[in-house]
Design a protein that fits this description.
Rossmann fold, five-stranded parallel sheet, four-stranded antiparallel sheet, alpha/beta, 16 strands, single chain, binds adenosine monophosphate, binds zinc ion
């Protein structure tokens, strides 16, 4: 399996540390707001990565944090804590806000068929670990206390910018957005490990520490959560490209200084989803959520398909036109896959042939659009019987996760499903008796209940709109 590694800026063969188990860390959401579909593009890509690894036979231990403290409005450790601002606005506590948006986040995961990581850890759960880690950095001379805060001293490293092409002079105030002056820092690139002093008095969550009552900086959580669950060596660390600097750069700096050796072998980053104004973000421009797309009548899996149609390392511009196209493509695809019968025997050679093509597309730095082409090739191949096609589709869907062989009945109760199937039988009978008026009436009634039916040569299939 080949992956683009941001660390080496090359496509490399993926070799796990342990033959049987891949340890994978994903930066989780900052839960002060709903996730937008841009955030979710990154999580869809990470889901594809985890499932591709599993498809290749690896066991995967995947860990994700939930940022519920310490992520300030500017990446350079200034501004208000995003969680506190949101709580104040909504007149709720920070923990209520975190709980609400964490639940909303995982509802979106479910709608997009993104597998939940095996371990999910809120940042506020590991405060003693952060304190130990920071103390370790102070003891080794990598951190200093200034103006009440503890900072990481980036000048102690020869290769602080190992993950990025950032030049130190770009870190001068005013050059890069989000860089503000902090007179307590010894060097502009230094970053906060622990805050005791902040511009705002009403930080809700504070903990005792050897440096005074305070709270952790943003980057520390990912280092410590990863160390706790994955140990001192990590195979893959992922996130969106905006995480490369400063977040992942700082994670590497502090973790490798703490450990005294290399920490993570592969850094995998997803390019952004943009809207017409540029990068989709929680604070700027259109804020598109999965629920909003649903309210507009779209199936969330059409958005998943739209993401899979492009390569994760290319920027993707969101327009309703492209979503409409994806929705049409999804409906057509599903109609084809649902009409496959299980008749005949699976042809093992054909299965192997197409499965290898599919796997090698995914193993080519997660080329999901090529993998989709293999799926279409299977459906088009007149030499394949339905049973073989269906088996291949089912297998591919372990990674694609588009519910290709499943009626979308997640939200329907059994009674309703029985009712729909019964109505379809009545309609088929009506058609057989040439009672087209009744047949149309049944179809219209189902349509009103958001059930779309389609007659295929193999029989009538139905979809939830
Ligand atoms: P946040 O909740 O802001 O911490 O971001 C959660 C994840 O979404 C991180 O991995 C970000 O890098 C990623 N992300 C943020 N904005 C976008 C975007 N427009 N497109 C793709 N990924 C994004
Ligand atoms: Zn992180």
């Amino acid at each position: 399996m080949k992956l683009y590694n941001t660390l080496t800026r090359k496509i490399e063969e993926f070799i796990p540390i342990d033959d049987n188990l891949v340890k994978m860390y994903t930066c989780g959401p900052t839960v002060y707001h709903y996730a937008h579909i841009g955030n979710l593009r990154s999580y869809i890509m990470e889901d594809i990565l985890e499932k591709t690894l599993m498809y290749n036979g690896y066991n995967v231990k995947r860990v994700m944090n939930i940022t519920d403290v310490g992520h300030l409005s500017s990446d350079s450790d200034t501004g208000d804590d995003k969680m506190v601002t949101s709580a104040k606005k909504q007149k709720k506590t920070v923990l209520d806000i975190a709980k609400f948006y964490t639940e909303a986040f995982f509802k979106d995961f479910k709608k997009l068929n993104i597998k939940k990581p095996e371990i999910i850890e809120p940042a506020t759960n590991l405060i003693p670990e952060y304190i130990n880690f920071i103390q370790g950095l102070i003891d080794k001379g990598y951190a200093y206390i200034s103006g009440g805060n503890v900072y990481f001293d980036t000048t102690k490293l020869n290769d602080y910018y190992v993950l990025t092409n950032h030049k130190e002079d770009e870190m001068v105030v005013g050059v890069r957005q989000g860089v503000e002056n902090d007179s307590s820092k010894h060097n502009q690139a230094d970053f906060v490990l622990w805050f005791t002093k902040s511009k705002f008095e009403d930080q809700e969550l504070k903990w005792d520490s050897p440096w005074g009552l305070g709270y952790p900086g943003w980057h520390i959580e990912c280092s410590c959560i990863s160390l706790k669950y994955c140990g001192e060596n990590l195979d893959i660390h992922c996130g969106g490209v905006d995480n490369i600097f400063p977040h992942h750069t700082n994670e590497i700096a502090q973790t490798e200084s703490y450990l005294g050796h290399k920490w993570c072998n592969y850094w995998v980053h997803c390019e952004h989803l943009n809207d017409k104004n540029g990068k989709m973000s929680k604070s700027n421009g259109d804020f598109l959520t999965v629920s909003l797309l649903e309210e507009k009548g779209y199936n969330p899996l059409s958005y998943r398909l739209m993401c899979l149609q492009s390569h994760y390392r290319k920027q993707l511009v969101f327009t309703y036109e492209s979503l409409n196209n994806a929705e049409q493509a999804y409906k057509k695809l599903k109609q084809k896959t649902l009409s496959l019968r299980e008749e005949g025997n699976v042809n093992e050679d054909s299965f192997k042939f197409y499965n290898e093509k599919f796997t090698s597309a995914l193993n080519d730095d997660m080329n999901t659009s090529s993998a989709l082409t293999v799926l279409y090739d299977v459906l088009k191949d007149n030499n394949l019987n339905d049973a073989t096609k269906k088996e291949l589709v089912k297998s591919f869907d372990k990674v694609l996760s588009l519910d290709l062989t499943k009626q979308n009945t997640n939200d329907l109760d059994e009674e309703f499903i029985l009712y729909v199937e019964n109505q379809i039988k009545l309609r088929t009978e009506a058609k057989r008796n040439k009672d087209f008026k009744l047949a149309d009436k049944i179809r219209d009634e189902l349509k009103e209940k958001k059930i779309e039916i389609k007659d295929t040569k193999e029989g009538t299939i139905w979809l939830v709109k």
